[in-house]
Amino acid sequence: ESNRVCNALALLQCVASHQSTRNLFLSAHTPLFLYPFLNTVNKSRPFEYLRLTSLGVIGALVKMDDSDVISFLLNTEIIPLCLRIMEMGTELSKTVATFIVQKVLLDPTGLSYICETADRFYAVSVTLEVDKTCELSHCSAGIHCSCQHGIATACDEARATLCAEPG
């Protein structure tokens, strides 16, 4: 059963990544149908495939560097879902969730959203272990280290801005 759903999600990924259908995909709030798969804590293989394929659809959306996509995802609370997956998912799911968070942080709207409240900033920085360096021995893929480094850089800039003396 999960294979069929994953196949359907792969089609949605194509729709999400195509420039002429992406806005319609968002207007229909289609990504919201993926959130139950992202929200599950079941670690069995079928659920992990559903989680990973759903992350792939969201990843296809953020890959296009579109602020409208970032705004939509922020309004639908994608960050808490990705942070939880980064804490409890498989290595591949963690990598895709990290990529999504990185793309959000690298967008000015996304970075502003994360830095809007101390709680949000703290949740992201704790999950990312911003104060620790990423060593290759701790990462299964170079892309994961790259995402960690990019996010740490964005958070360092945000922290400097938040802690700057008014003047």
Automatic annotation (TrEMBL):
> A GO CC term?
CCR4-NOT complex
| An individual GO BP term | mRNA catabolic process
Query: InterPro entries from the xrefs?
Result: ARM-like, CNOT9
Q: Domain of life, per the record?
A: Eukaryota
Q: Which Pfam families match?
A: Rcd1
Could you identify this protein by its name? CCR4-NOT transcription complex subunit 9
